[in-house]
Amino acid sequence: MERRNFLKSCACIAAVGATEGLSAGAQATPKEPDSVRPQPGDYLVVEDGHGNARSISASELVQEAQQVMAFPQAPISGVIRSGSRFNKVMVMRLDPALMDEETKQNSADGVVAYSAICTHQGCDVNSYIEDKKEFFCFCHYSRFDPYTAGKVTNGPATKKLAMLPIEIKDDLLVVKEPFTRKPGYK
Amino acid sequence: MSLVKRFGALAVAAAIAPAAYAAGDSASAKSSPLADYSPVTENRLKNPEPENWLQWRGNYEGWTYSPLEQINTENIDDLVPVWSYSTGELEGHQSPPIVNDGVMFISTPNNQVIALNAETGAELWRYKKEIPEELFQLHPTNRGVGLYGDKVYLAATDACLVALDAKTGEEAWVTCVADWKDGYYMTLSPLIAKGQVMVGVSGGEYGIRGHITAVNAETGKISWKTHTIPAPGEPGSETWKGDAWKTGGASVWIAGTYDADMGVAFYGTGNGGPWMPDTRPGDNLYANSVVALDVETGKMVGYHQYHHNDAWDWDEVSPPVIIDYKHKGKDIKGLVHAGRNGYLWTLERNEDGSIAFVDAEKYVKQNVFKSIDPVTGRPTYDPARTPGTGKTVTFCPSLWGGKDWPPEAYSPKTGLFYIPAHENLCTEMGGVKMGPRKSGELYIGVPIADILTNIRLADGAEDHIGEIQAWDLTKGKKVWQFNMKEMNWGPLLATGGNLLFSGGGNDRIFRALDARTGKKLWQYRANSGITAVPSSWMVNGTQFIGVQAGWGVDAQRMQGAFDAVMDHTTTVPQGGVLHVFTLKKNAKKLMDAASR
Hints:
The complex is a heterodimer of chains A (186) and B (596).
Chain A: H1 2-16, E1 43-47, E2 53-55, E3 68-73, E4 89-93, H2 101-106, E5 111-115, E6 125-129, E7 134-137, E8 143-145, E9 151-154, E10 166-169, E11 172-175
Antiparallel strand pairs in A: 1-2, 1-3, 3-4, 4-5, 6-7, 7-8, 8-9, 10-11
Chain B: E1 2-4, H1 8-16, H2 18-21, H3 42-46, E2 65-66, E3 79-86, E4 98-100, E5 103-108, E6 112-117, E7 123-128, E8 146-148, E9 151-155, E10 160-165, E11 171-176, E12 191-193, E13 196-200, E14 211-216, E15 222-227, E16 257-259, E17 264-268, E18 289-294, E19 300-305, E20 321-327, E21 330-338, E22 343-349, E23 355-362, E24 369-372, E25 379-381, E26 393-395, E27 409-411, E28 416-422, E29 425-429, H4 448-452, E30 455-457, E31 466-472, E32 477-484, E33 493-495, E34 499-502, E35 509-514, E36 520-525, E37 535-539, E38 542-549, H5 553-565, E39 577-583, H6 584-595
Parallel strand pairs in B: 2-33
Antiparallel strand pairs in B: 1-7, 3-39, 4-5, 5-6, 6-7, 8-9, 9-10, 10-11, 12-13, 13-14, 14-15, 16-17, 17-18, 18-19, 20-21, 21-22, 22-23, 24-25, 26-29, 27-28, 28-31, 29-30, 31-32, 33-34, 34-35, 35-36, 37-38, 38-39
């Protein structure tokens, strides 16, 4: 699976063509390409710690299984935008029937992508509490509802998580629009 | 970098006399203690005046003891709050008020330093270091500034050491000792000796390689850097296999103690990383150790490893306290350490800097060590209490240990050694298979969810968990014990008035005990939980006691773990406030003066 997806990712790099410029709606961004916020057309990939990327296919995601931690990857240059931890996103498949309207609009076939940065003090949100169906930040125990566009269900965070609207192309996850709000806590 | 100042006309005035006018609170150039700021010399650090608190634990030896005795067991009922100060920061406040001839410096979470009039509470200046927004680490706190010459030193969370002009709060220089993007950060108070400002790095949970760095106090240039994990070929490297040394942790969380006559500093080191012992086979020197460094060269002249190949997250972050005592009739130039591993370690510092084992005694429930070698102090382990990758076990004390970072105290007046302890707590923990390390990502090998729910309660937990223990080192016996219902994250302050001050609980209480008996004599309920080092000082003949309240970091995490396994949910309000106390008669005089 990993090899297949990696090859798929490479194929798409060739196919997408020159659509890698910054979108009009992009947030104020650092200059380094690997730190630029996710751009429409970027693929969502899992990084292995050695600079290699494996693209995520929608079909591999099991409903309400633990989230997959991912970064965007520029389609042409192949640059993985992991130079900024604020580009880290959580990908998971939800039950579409339980989603509110905003979540549905930003999802694709039940798959959602959320910023993995807590809106309280910027810790990593990297846990999912299955019985509560909530994302969890281990620093201060804030919880967020993935079915209501990242709404806070338990403080101290007060702002909901940023969503990253996505679409599915050839079974791969592709960024559709920039983050719905600035990721992070400021 | 920014110096936060007041606005408008005051800002104009600041250009003329920034020290006096940088802040409001009706400070004036004439009345500001900054006008005659006293330079801090090594001799003053070695022989601190009773009225001052020049470094985070009061003296080089790490006693956390003030000889002041105006406030004492006879008049403690008259101790009242006299002024307070909001820091504007959430998270865990851990630093003491550090006082030099009427000028106070406190540090807070988010890399802030505030200078105050130590008598009136008037703000003199405020500094806040700009930190990259993306910087994230698990211990957003600071444990106190360092003073030397006419400068104030702050070890910041971006792994940079900042020198400030003590009179103005302006930056003199900034020297970064490591790369925060690679998981390095600093929270400790600097140790300053022989013109060197020494700092250590945290980040063991990110797979860093620990080190201690000395920076020239005047120029900001790095003098030396000594790693706490040897590179291949260096002494001790045979205790590591493969590349494990590169990511082996051994963080330096806490300022060292210092024997000024020997010119040797003693630092505690954190656990090996990742947490599970099978990921780094070998003894893993110099993790979980005390290391002795020549402060002029950084050369490691001695060490003692409390326990090898750690499996329990028992960082031995606290440095040993320098106390000379008798053991079996023999005078010992001692080092004393209440270990996170649940043993009270007594060691001897030799003339050449090497360290000899003297004795070790359990001070809380400990079911891991099966024996301790009477000559070397090396423990043996119970395999059934030793977790590993794919092997979950229960062990005591918990991963937060018998004592975590909060410093002990020693009173030469009572001759007792005081320990803030956790009793009746155990942990259930095991490791999972890990992927490769990613720079700046947690590299622990134990799921976070498991860490947050690790606590298991031993028999006795229903009665109490937090303790303050008093030990007679010569007799090797516990003399008294004060119990607290739940946790105790309270650093201790002993005074010449035979008082022992501390907070530490989720009840927000700051209390004074009789240092001789452990009897509670006084208490005050603060705005938030107290996990900071208290201190004491005197200005114009008035003694003060001060402590920052501000719940957060590991105390808050332990509260979450308690809520996960106990039948309650506890809310401890957050927000930093410095509380200052004095005797009622002096408080009245100060308030009258302030209102004039």
